[in-house]
User: Fold this.
Amino acid sequence: MRILVVEDERRLCGIIKRGLMEEGYAVDTSYDGEDGEYLAESTPYDLIVLDIMLPKKDGVEICRDLRLKKVNTAILMLTAKDTVEDRVKGLDAGADDYLVKPFAFNELLARIRALLRRTGSSKSPKLQVGDLLMDTLTREVRRGKRIIELTSKEYTILEYFMRHPKVVITRTMLEEHAWDYEFESMSNIIDVYIRRIRRKIDEVGQDSLIQTIRGAGYRMKAA
Amino acid sequence: MRLVKSVKFRLTIWYLAVLVGLLLLFGIMAYFMLSNSLYQSLDDSLRTQALALEDSLDIENGQVNLGDTEQPGELVLIYGVDGSLLQGLSWGVEVPHVDTLVVQALESHASFLNARTASGQEIRLHVAPFSDEPGISAIVVGRSTEEVTEVLGNFKNILIIAAMATLALAGGGGFFMASRVLKPVERIRQTAQEIEESDLSRRIEVGSEDELGRLASTLNQMIGRLEAAFSRQRQFTADASHELRTPLAVVQAESTLALRKKRTQDDYRKSLELISQEAGHMSAVVGKLLYLARIDAGKDQVKFERINLKELLTELSSDIEVLAREKGVEFKLSSLEDLTVEGDKIKLEQLFLNLLENAVKYTPSGGSISVSIVRGDKTAVIAVKDTGIGISKEHIPHLFERFYRIDKARSRAEGGAGLGLAICKHIAEVHGGRIEVESKIGEGSTFSVFIPILEKAN
Assistant:
């Protein structure tokens, strides 16, 4: 899952980025409205955390313009403005949720999870493909009764597969949703991660859950 | 009671009182003039009659022959030389003083008098000397004044009725006019009453350019000033709360993030450092806010003393030099004139320290900062000149406003809250001076503080 954080208060932005990356999200940051809007338009983010009071362009305006341009990425407004009118204005501009500063980090994470659930196919915090189970709340992954230990990046990639079962996922899609802009695309890094994930989740003697589609990418096998 | 106290009521009453006076004066004058003229013509006709009688009278042996001049309803008395009544044509008139008048007439004095008949009718008498005919000495002619009094009575009635009607019309009309003229006052009052703190954007309708129109526009200007003051206040509160909420958000986010799981001691240390930094920033903001609040409440105390600016700036420069050297910025004191001002040492230090710190903050490494004190016209001009990033024109007019920041992200990262220059401006003003800025993007800025010089006391 790749998230864009547009927040002009750099220290806060840094904290959010650090916390989200700890949770395995790929995070890009932007400190002003115009730059943030450009990133949001040009990259298929799974979610945008958007401050309202931003230099160059207001968060509410960005939200409205993104929706006009048919960018339907989930938007979580993050702001110091807490009057009812402000919240209504933000939500009416097309935001999906609204969080007032100061906030507890757990609440930010919970709201992000909720929004990602809403946009994905599953409404449950638990994802399941066959007997492969992922609890996005506790970040526990199990194959049957076997608990699987994954690194943060492996988890992110697997989550993306499990949210989009039966869909062909290209390397570019993976790159866009699991890595941030600091990622230097190396020819085989994705393949390396896929191999590692397969080794961890697949049962001996069975077909792999992640199939290779020649010339296209990968697909999570339907149960 | 409210009506009696109202301006329109009092206005009407005054107006009516003046009108009553005028009508009374006019009526009395008209009445007397008419009565005068009526009696005059009555007297004239009596005189004419007396003359006519004089011509036509014949006395033969004490017998008076009136000839053909007699007119009905008229009184004619003819007296002899001895004062005896020779001939009387009358309706029993009781004339109290006629005898004396006759005596006067005998001495050739004509006169008029009013008398009353037995039936109570008023009558006008003319007593004239009568000399042509021997044996006759005086003639009294009289005529009833009934006609005159009737005309006068009618005239009086007409006057009274007309006056009443005029007063009623004028009173009603006056009240109506007063109400009409004063209606805007009531409207102004109502609007002013309705305008509350929350809708100061409303204005009173200005209908005309007369006194009331001017009153309305004056009130509007006042409401405008109130609105501006309230909006400044609201803006200040909003800015202040935002200014405090942002570091609070950092503290809250960082602490809750750190507490989510067990971390290394190093991570905890970093978190606590960040939190403590933000707390420090917050307490600086709160301190500045409190200082500004004290200024606004007029409770800022200043302790004036003689201050040598050269000494003050030389002292300060040692601290700044360290800061500048760390950043790789050259710092120099150029041409410091030996000038003394009356000032509060702590506040002046704060003022110059703030300007110098800003200069260091916004001058990239390799640049330079210079401070000078020059004697201006009765003022000391302290200039802090840097070769920093400069300030673009559109920001300069707002530079000294509270919470005004050119680049809020950068400024806050440097620990600024946009209050420093507002405080500098206040300090300069407390000293009877001012602060000015000249700047060009990319070339640097010069902040000049003007403070009146304390002329050397002998």
Observations:
- Residues 105-119 of chain A form the longest helix (15 residues).
- The two ends of chain A are 22 Å apart (CA to CA).
- Chain A touches chain B at residues 8-12, 15-16, 18-19, 22, 31-32, 53, 55, 80, 101-106, 108 (CB under 8 Å).
